[in-house]
Structure formats: structure tokens, C-alpha cells
Design a protein that fits this description.
Layout lengths: L1 E10 L5 H22 L3 H4 L14 H13 L11 E3 L4 E6 L2 E6 L7 E5 L3 H13 L2 E10 L5 E11 L8 E6 L3 E6 L5 E5 L1 H19 L3 H32 L3 E6 L3 H4 L4 H4 L11 H15 L3 E5 L15 E3 L2 E3 L5 E3 H10 L34 H10 L1
Parallel strand pairs: 8-11, 11-12
Antiparallel strand pairs: 1-7, 2-6, 3-4, 4-5, 6-7, 8-9, 9-10, 13-14, 14-15
Helix pairs in contact: 1-3, 5-6, 6-9
Length: 392
């Protein structure tokens, strides 16, 4: 059994103004407690417990967690906001009628129960598992969005079945022209076009430039936050579709290991100045993370393989070819979509052969070291480093 950890973001249902103001007031008190702790010597701070803050009206479990969170932030000099947080011993989830409710004693000696607004398609199943005991609660945080909506952030861990027997691997190539391309072995592929994302990046870049010239820095931050939320939503949608695509065909997903690509892949100044083409704006690590946790939940295995030569090799024989923009050309004149070819290579990856003779049809995807990644996903960065050392 594999363990899956989730954080549920649940808004409170019709939270009245009195409770909202109380949450705000107690969060301010909690932040002051954290800042007072920073003034204490680190060795003495570690010895403190909630008994040192009996004069504070916040419950002892919340104060103890604030002390732990403050001690964990070793380089912080001042907290702007310290969220109220407690462990699973100080709150419980139940169902009252059609509503899920969370009960906790935020104030000393007082306990209240507040209904939660739950997205039925996403969280009902998980919360039902919490109630029947098949899922375990973690911590509870109270946070407020920029729109003034209060949420309960509840961490949950549960066991999910291990991935079953699969028919093969679907390679997932990530890029800028196509955000993702997932191809079945020697068959068709599914494309997620990046044209809209490029237009979005350029539009936000133009708006930021005009706002910066007007010295409206607060608006610039709001715009950046909005752009980030939109990209997060896009990655959520693509990751969900990737997992469903693999599940429909009974296959696993393989990603190329892109760790350190910002340092190893050089860019011209003209490209970096364009937000749509700048690789520093890539959010594909987030896409992979979203896909991984959704795949664990769906019982779909996920692996990572080294990235070198996945775009330059011919998927038919592994020989080095030539890529020009969207097209790949093999040494014998064979042509196909470059991203589809890369996804084929990722899906059928077996290892690398050290000698690379470009005059011959030498396979760079030949089986050389099975221990580096066929049935065991290589550690982030290790696979690319081992290949680089082998080729040097």
C-alpha cells in the first residue's frame, strides 16, 4: 500500500462577520506571540511551552504549534502573519445533515463547531474516509484569502492501493509550443497546445510594464498573483487529463528529468526578454508534481528518465537526427512531429549507450544500464549527471 498525503482547502459555510473578526483578531495575537518568541534566545526558546503564555487567550495546543513553527524558521527576523495551526488532537471532522463540520477549541475552555463548504466532486470521498477512520487527519490551519474568505486547511493521509500491472509506458514531453504531449507506444499522441499560454504570458508582461512605469507596484504584485493562479489551474487540468489518459489505456506515465535545466540550457537576451519564450517562466515541475499525486491516487505508476537526447534521437532506431522547430528529421529522411517523437523516446527509454558515432545509426537509447531507470525511477538530477559523466 502506498501513502497519499493531501491538503484540503475548505471554505467555511456562510461564516458570520463576528466569527470572521474573531479569527482575524486571534491571528494578530498569534503573530505577536511568534514575534515575541523571536526576541528570546534560541536555546531558551526551544524550552518554552504554552505555560509561558497563560496570559494569552488562545488555546494551549495552538500556542504549542506556534512555538514549533517559530523554532523551525531559523532565519526569519519578523513575521508579518503567523497562521493559527493545531495538530489532529485538537479538532475533529463530522457530518451534520448535509454539511461536513469541523469542531475545535480555539479559545481556552471553549469549543465550537463550524460547517464547511465542500466541493462534492473533489473532497466528499476523502472526508467520508476521515469519518469512518480509513484516512488519518494531520494538522488544521486557519487562513484568509485576499478576497477576505476564511478557509480551513486540513492535511489528510490515507493508504491507497499500489499500482497494478501495466501494459506499457506513455511518454510525456513538456515544452513551450506544446505544454505537454503524451503518446502511446508507436501510436497516436495527445497534444496540449501552448499557444494560449504564450499569449497570456505576453499580455500579462505588457500590463506589468505599464504598471511599473506608473509605479503601481501593488497592482504589479496582484497581477503576478493572478497569472500564477491561472497557470496553476491550467496545470491542474492538464495533470488530471494526463492521469485519465493513462488510466483509460492501462499504462504508466514517464516524464523526462528536467532538473537544473535553467542552469544547463542557455538563452539569448532577446529570448529572455519575451515572457512567452523565456524558459525561466516554465512551470513544468508543478505540472509533474500535480500529475504524480493524482496518479498515486488513481493507481497509475509514474517514472522519471534522463532528458539528454530524447528530442534528438529517432524513436524508430535511436539514431541521432535533426530537429528543426516542430519537425524531426531522421538520417534516412523520415519526418514526424518533434514533440511526438520525443514523447515516444521517453516512453520506450531503456538506457544509454556511451559511444556516439554520428556517421552511423548508433542507438543512444539502447539498453546499457538498466539499474539507472527502467523499473526504478532515478533520483532527481542523478540520472542526468550519470549520463553527462558517461559521455565525457
Amino acid at each position: 500500500m502506498a501513502e497519499l498525503k493531501l491538503t484540503l482547502k475548505l471554505p467555511f459555510y456562510r461564516l458570520n462577520q463576528v466569527k470572521a473578526l474573531e479569527f482575524e483578531r486571534l491571528t494578530a495575537i498569534n503573530t505577536q506571540v511568534a514575534n515575541d518568541l523571536l526576541a528570546v534566545d534560541k536555546k531558551e526558546r526551544k524550552k518554552l511551552t504554552s505555560s509561558a503564555f497563560r496570559h494569552v487567550e488562545i488555546g494551549s495546543a495552538w500556542i504549542n504549534q506556534t512555538i514549533r513553527n517559530t523554532n523551525a524558521k531559523t532565519k526569519v527576523k519578523h513575521f508579518k502573519r503567523m497562521l493559527l495551526e493545531t495538530n489532529n488532537q485538537n479538532f475533529e471532522i463530522s457530518k451534520q445533515g448535509n454539511f461536513f463540520t469541523v469542531a475545535f477549541n480555539l479559545l481556552r475552555g471553549r469549543k465550537g463547531r463550524i460547517p464547511l463548504d465542500v466541493h462534492a466532486a473533489s473532497h466528499t470521498e476523502v472526508l467520508n474516509k476521515v469519518i469512518d477512520g480509513s484516512a488519518k487527519l494531520g494538522s488544521l490551519k486557519l487562513c484568509k484569502s485576499k478576497k477576505g474568505i476564511w478557509y480551513a486547511l486540513i492535511s489528510v493521509s490515507m493508504d491507497v492501493p499500489d499500482a497494478g500491472v501495466i501494459k506499457g509506458w506513455i511518454g510525456v514531453d513538456r515544452g513551450q509550443n506544446n505544454i505537454a504531449v503524451a503518446a502511446l507506444p508507436k501510436s497516436f499522441g495527445r497534444f496540449w497546445n501552448g499557444r494560449k499560454v504564450k499569449a497570456l504570458r505576453r499580455r500579462f508582461q505588457k500590463q506589468r510594464k505599464s504598471l511599473q512605469e506608473a509605479k503601481k507596484l501593488k497592482k504589479v504584485k496582484q497581477l503576478e498573483s493572478r497569472e500564477r493562479r491561472i497557470m496553476t489551474q491550467i496545470n491542474h487540468e492538464i495533470s488530471k487529463q494526463l492521469v485519465q489518459f493513462a488510466k483509460d489505456f492501462g499504462m504508466g506515465l514517464r516524464f523526462e528529468d528536467l532538473s537544473g535545466i535553467r542552469q544547463t540550457s542557455k538563452q539569448r537576451k532577446k529570448i529572455k526578454s519575451d515572457a512567452a519564450e523565456n524558459r525561466d517562466a516554465w512551470s513544468y515541475y508543478q505540472l509533474e508534481c500535480f500529475t504524480r499525486y493524482k496518479a498515486i491516487r488513481a493507481g497509475v505508476p509514474v517514472e522519471s528518465v534522463p532528458a539528454p537526447y530524447t528530442s534528438k534521437s529517432d524513436h524508430r532506431n535511436g539514431a541521432i537526427g535533426k530537429r528543426v522547430k516542430h519537425q524531426f528529421k531522421g538520417f534516412d529522411g523520415y519526418r514526424c512531429n518533434a514533440d511526438w517523437n520525443a514523447s515516444q523516446n521517453i516512453g520506450q527509454w531503456l538506457g544509454f549507450a556511451c559511444p556516439l558515432d554520428l556517421q552511423k545509426a548508433v542507438s543512444t537509447m539502447g539498453a546499457a544500464d538498466l539499474a539507472d531507470g527502467v523499473n526504478d525511477s532515478p533520483k532527481t538530477g542523478d540520472a542526468s549527471n550519470s549520463v553527462a559523466s558517461a559521455l565525457s
